[in-house]
Amino acid sequence: MNETGRWLPRLVAGTAMLLATGHAAMSADKSQYTLFNPTPDKLLRDMTTDRPDITESPFTVDAGRVQVETNLFGYFRSRPDENGTVTDSYDVAITNVRIGLTNHVELSLVWQPYGFVRAREVNPVKVTHQSGIGRIDVRGKINLWGNDKFEKPGDTALALLPFVVLPTDRDNGISPQYVDPGLIVPYAIKLSDKFALGVNGALFYFREDATTSYHMEYLASASLSYEWNDKFGTYYEVAGRFHTQDPRGDVVVLGTGFTYKLRKDLQLDGGVNFGVTPASDRINPFVGLSARF
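Request: output the structure for the sequence above.
Response:
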């Protein structure tokens, strides 16, 4: 038998096995898996993250798995407020711990262990500093459809993401002062083999400080992603926060960034947001890392 006769059957068999394994991961009934009965490795979905863009994904972490998504470092430079004050903010290690409870439900905790803010007033010239622990977000995500069927153009996914923001230190200038609940509705559609579109609509019941009252704010975003290959992807995003009580008006930002898979369960990312309205931060670069266990 010649060399082709030796390796061709093995190649065909190996290809068939890979296709069968991939099909099994997409079509297998995974409803029996829970937090205490984890999804086996061979049935795991491809790792998807809620970062680096503002737009949340509709996909949950597989049951019994933990995914840690960390904003290693972020910087914000504000535009001048009505008094001319410019603020520089630094975020360190804001971490989202996502825990798969079932095949379609996850619980997550977002914590800001440290933040630093420097504000520079114009008249008179004065610089103030604040630092400390930031907020804690308790979030749940319920995937309504599309978790395991988002492979072909035209496939869609939808989820509900209720959350509540909790203060940790009401007086440090970093943590919020009040409990703020909200609801995000993440939606995604596979446009082609390379392009996907994510869209969010959200309601946020918010109180900024003692001088304001609770009011409803509205959040909306859209993120267009492109997969250049199995490891590298980019995105382009527009996001807004509306009906704010800021006298400068609503917040609208444009953003772009990248994701790079170092390994199957490890992803590096980075990006930058640019404010386009007077109430939005002028610039916000950041870099992060996500891992699945």
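Helices lie at 3-27.
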